[in-house]
Amino acid sequence: MQPKGQQLIGLDAFFAAGAPIHAVNPASGEQLEPAYASGGFAEVNRACELAESASVAFRTSSLQQRATFLETIADQIEAIGDELIQRGMLESGLPRARLEGERGRTCGQLRLFASVVRAGEWLDVRIDPALPERQPLPRVDLRQQHIALGPVVVFGASNFPLAFSVAGGDTASALAAGCPVIVKAHSAHPGTSELVGRAVQAAIKECQMPEGVFSLLFGSGFEVGQALVSDPRVKAVGFTGSRSGGMALMATAQTRLQPIPVYAEMSSINPVFLLPEALQSRTQALAEGFIGSLSMGAGQFCTSPGLVIAIRSSALDTFVAATSKVISGIATQTMLTPGIHSAYEQGVKALSDNVGVRSLGNGDASDAPNQCQATLFTTSAEVFLNDDRLQDEVFGACSLLIECDDMAQVKSVAEKLEGQLTATIQMEEGDIEQAKLLLPALEERAGRVLVNGWPTGVEVCHAMVHGGPFPATSDSRTTSVGSAAIYRFLRPVCYQNMPQALLPEVLRDGNPLKVSQLMDGKRVV
Amino acid sequence: MQPKGQQLIGLDAFFAAGAPIHAVNPASGEQLEPAYASGGFAEVNRACELAESASVAFRTSSLQQRATFLETIADQIEAIGDELIQRGMLESGLPRARLEGERGRTCGQLRLFASVVRAGEWLDVRIDPALPERQPLPRVDLRQQHIALGPVVVFGASNFPLAFSVAGGDTASALAAGCPVIVKAHSAHPGTSELVGRAVQAAIKECQMPEGVFSLLFGSGFEVGQALVSDPRVKAVGFTGSRSGGMALMATAQTRLQPIPVYAEMSSINPVFLLPEALQSRTQALAEGFIGSLSMGAGQFCTSPGLVIAIRSSALDTFVAATSKVISGIATQTMLTPGIHSAYEQGVKALSDNVGVRSLGNGDASDAPNQCQATLFTTSAEVFLNDDRLQDEVFGACSLLIECDDMAQVKSVAEKLEGQLTATIQMEEGDIEQAKLLLPALEERAGRVLVNGWPTGVEVCHAMVHGGPFPATSDSRTTSVGSAAIYRFLRPVCYQNMPQALLPEVLRDGNPLKVSQLMDGKRVV
After folding, report:
1. CB of A442 within 8 A of CB of A291?
2. What CATH number is associated with residue A185?
3. Do B52 and B126 fall within a single domain?
4. Helix crossing, A169-177 with A63-80: angle to 10°?
5. A212: in domain
6. Three-class SS of residue B188?
7. Under 8 Å between Cβ of A286 and A319
8. What's the CA angle centered on A447, arms B128 and B265, to 5 degrees?
9. What is the Cα–Cα distance from B270 to B3, expressed in whole angstroms?
10. Where is the signal peptide (chains A, B) (predicted)?
């Protein structure tokens, strides 16, 4: 099946009437067909209307029904076959292996959420039975579960055309929670989006889910995106993208008559701390590992290591020489969009122009369109501590090495950092005291703290936190990857003295759904 | 011990230099001594500095230490003795029995949170062990816990001088989470606040907690309150009060360089639905129960039943006649402050002046200062559905009965409601279908749905939700009462491939703290 350029609203598919959007093949610069005529108010209104009308039926569907629906979406995505991969390569410039891996991750994620839905931990069932004899006052029967917030708007991200897009982590976790989803497709990969959207439509039909459970709109972020976030029927927003884009959505959500949560994953430079003994004993391996993590996927990851911190030493000199050598062998890679490429070039130029910063080397250059040339800079801790601009994310394969006088200065750098998705410590046994010194500052600033690894590569599992304090995300209490992502789309409801016949099934006597419960404050599995 | 009029910052107590604040005895209108000279920037700065400096030590204190600290606060509050009750009566106009009950609730709440801290459920421990043999890629060891957000600012509420004030639910849950707390005392009960604040100071000394764990500031909401919420060292805010006050804090928190969560519990009219068979079979009991709930504490509860909805019938006529009769016997009660009293009179006048609304009766009147005269109004569903002002909370013993033509209109009223703390259904077995029809709309609009009870009286337990969609609160995903209130002050952190010696104790192998865990997604108690 080839993409047609249609908006998908509920089970409908049709051409809108707004200005056309064309994807661009970033490797060649050529415009891709078909055009996507932008949606407008009518499409937003219709999608919200359908989502609202599906809301109660979907959130009260059985755990089994919802889990099967998620699995069916995964099956339908796989059923698209190689056309999905080919279209993704064309629109994103990403290589085949990466997109095949990403498809695996996307479908695995949907199936993980199916198992999460079935297990029912997310319902956070709490039962405090009546205590009619209690003095001075009896206690009435009180039971709690979590319910879905209602329709959720998801913005597809540019850098993961499958895993953070139409049926990516935000959509999977929102559907798992029981929220209808309206996706605003990213204009960089509309064809990929449409193909996945049609797979979701097929799953809705196959599972006989209410039609309004899913819509996919194409249009400008400003018009369609802001209209969606402003709509009173929308109850939460998931977004992965730029800091300015996320903050615009946060502002819109806060000025609504009824403010709603926005889960924006925005900007992170992912500091890596090279502690002395590790630097001494693994100099070459660290240089190779670092440049490998930095250049992977042209550095177009939220978790790309944009900052490396170490104490001046002869080992650091050797590390610097090694990284300069390794980076010089890195070939250019096609970036996702012309816009991302030009922002990267601007970010690199700002560092080049900064008198406090000097170059440590580059990868290959190329005259082909939208090529990312890997770049490494260095500066001193003094300069870094006095120049907030050096914390700005440069999205792509660019990193900055901070040279420190001593461990106290390393700690000052750590404490100066904004919120991050990740912070990494490279250490050996002899570095343990320094690591202990750093850990509190890193815990307070990052969603994930790693030892002896590289931040790129985010496992989709139960303990993952892909989040962190602002500006890494808009809400440090949450994760956008892993099973805990479902909690973003839920709220607790307490049922007091409710007859069994009226109680939601999961709260009835005898634990009919066999879900883990907090009974009078004690965990019962 | 008598209150002295001093600011309490860390373990210090001193007189500030700003404009004096005097409490007023609302029963007599007389000013009470001592004066509280307002704090200003210096006090805010000092309290934030101390709180930040205590932050790591406090959040990494052992579960046992923190639990004992909470219990010691309760002991120290009880040790104040009757002076606390007497001062509370003087400043609030509330009767002795109510304040004694509230003290019991406050201390019980602190002890509940001590048990919650020890049990460790709130840490949400998740462990995904390494899978070195996994194909195509191995999995690295990933572990998650929740950590404290950092310093929290709590605004004391006027209507619970103990249970929602200096050492009330917000403070107890924030301390339990491991967050230092800075309380901005409510100016209506500064003496009560100071006494409780000194009890907390005594507990800090006794338990050798870091000094900055607690401060208590007196001053204007605008100056001191906004300065606290703006301070970059503050990481979250707890507030119970008016809609305008809560929204001002939300706006301030959102415009900070680093936005922070504000948990504001604001406004709710707590609809009560009288279904036909219940109304028919329990007419007199419902009238008495309703007026009892409405007039309790002069209606000065967030959960006071400000709206009653029923279908026109002869049973409703009987109910109306009975409520008119019952309310006519209700004596006036002293309201908490002159400001609350005048806002109540204005709210009642707005309803009296509304041509679509008519009176159903009043309680006693009185010429004494700040007396609340209970008041009941009625209107039709048509009028209600077309006049949003009728959803404005009138804080005090005032309620509005909505007469509906049929069940469809009752449902329309339910679907028109803003977010609420509670929604109540009065029903008999024959009403079950109507209750099922209403439940989805009520779940979506209220934090707690009750059957055959009255919304006043909030149990402090594990299943309680004292929360709800905006404007009931600023964040429907949370509760401010009950053990789940602790989650407001936590965020998840993931530890990847971290050596045992560096891991937080609770995440180490062998579950040394015996805390419930999610191991590879499976619950292990």
Report:
1. no
2. 3.40.605.10
3. yes
4. 150
5. yes
6. coil
7. yes
8. 110
9. 37
10. none
Please enumerate in sequence order all residues whose Cβ is within 8 A of that of B321, keeping only pairs 6 or more positions apart, or say none: none
- Minimum-distance CB partner of A491 among B449, B476, B490: B476
Q: Determine, for residues A139 and B459 on separate chains, whether the beta-carbon distance falls below 8 Å.
A: yes
Identify whether residues B255 and B171 lie together within a single domain: yes
CB contact (8 A) between residue A501 and residue B432: yes
A378-421 residue pLDDT tens = 999 999 999 999 999 999 999 999 999 999 999 999 999 999 99
H or E element at residue A494? strand A490-496
Per residue in B120-138, pLDDT (tens digit) is 999 999 999 999 999 989 9
* Residues in B touching A447 (Cβ below 8 Å): 491-494
Bond preceding residue A210 cis, omega within 30 of 0: no
- Token pair, residue A288, equals 């190779």
Structure confidence at residue A220 (pLDDT)? 86
Residue A375 counted as domain residue: yes
By Cβ distance, the residue of A150, A451, A494 closest to B464 is A494
How far, in Å, are A360, B99, B170, B222 from residue B447 at the CA level?
Answer: 57, 26, 17, 29
Asked whether residue A211 falls in the same domain as residue A321, the answer is: no
Check residue A119 and give left, alpha or beta (phi > 0: left; psi -120 to 50: alpha).
alpha
User: What is the three-class DSSP state of A249?
Assistant: helix
C-alpha dihedral over A448, A160, A199, A234, to 10 degrees? 70
The yes-or-no answer on residue B265 being catalytic is: yes
Q: What is the ipTM of this complex?
A: 0.98
Same domain, A480 and A366: no
Please give the residue range of the domain that contains residue A337: 271-451
Q: Pick the catalytic residue from B52, B71, B265, B403.
A: B265
B202 with B69: CB under 8 angstroms?
no
Residue B339 domain-assigned (yes or no): yes
